[in-house]
Design goal:
With 189 residues, this protein is an alpha+beta fold. The chain has four helices and eight strands. The strands form two sheets. The protein has a five-stranded antiparallel sheet, with helices on both faces. The structure holds zinc ion (ZN).
């Protein structure tokens, strides 16, 4: 496996709508190897999600996973690979929480997201996925799905007043009651 270079804001691929993955491509060993590389890259960056455009590939594919000790992860979110996904909000008012992005290093901001979404698509083997995800998983999925449409979390912020560098966020904004635990919000995606 290999760690892939993560592209940063300013690279046009992050503003380019991704194209569907040809289903036959999933049968190719090179594609499966590359998906493993994407997962390893997410782990290496200590992120909770990573979309193909973030490694310069304009494919509709993302991966995500959260450790059980991430404070918002509700006991952990298993590794998932989503191919050619579609999202549909489930009823509920948008909730604000902190997000960061591996392609926008060291910034955090408050972003409204749907509390639950219906997620449909394929897994890495081409098998159908259709499930409702909630909470932190719903937030990750919406962040990654945006990457497939050239949208960054900054675009989703209602205003920029909460936009902070990570060090200042930890000093001034992060809840001190939970500061001794790894923060999901300190992780980027
Ligand atoms: Zn991101």
């Amino acid at each position: 496996m290999a760690v892939l270079p993560i592209v940063r804001m300013g690279n046009p691929v992050l503003r380019t709508p991704a194209v569907p993955v040809p289903p036959e491509a999933l049968a190719e060993p090179a594609t499966q190897q590359w998906i493993d590389d994407l997962i390893e890259t997410m782990h290496d960056a200590d992120g909770v999600g990573l979309a193909a455009p973030q490694v310069g590939v304009a494919w509709q594919l993302f991966v995500y996973e959260a450790e059980a000790d991430d404070e918002d992860a509700d006991g952990g979110i298993p590794l998932a690979v989503l191919v050619n996904p579609a999202l549909e909000p489930v009823a509920g008012e948008p909730l604000f929480d902190w997000e960061g992005c591996l392609s926008i290093p060291d910034l955090r901001g408050l972003v409204p997201r749907h509390p639950a979404v219906r997620l449909r698509g394929l897994d890495r083997h081409g098998q159908p996925v259709d499930r409702v995800v909630e909470g932190f998983e719903a937030r990750i999925v919406q962040h990654e799905f945006d990457h497939l449409n050239g949208v960054l979390f900054l675009d989703r912020m209602r205003d920029l007043a909460s936009l902070s560098f990570l060090d200042e966020w930890q000093e001034f904004l992060h809840d001190p009651a939970t500061a001794d635990r790894p923060s999901a919000a300190a992780k980027a995606e």
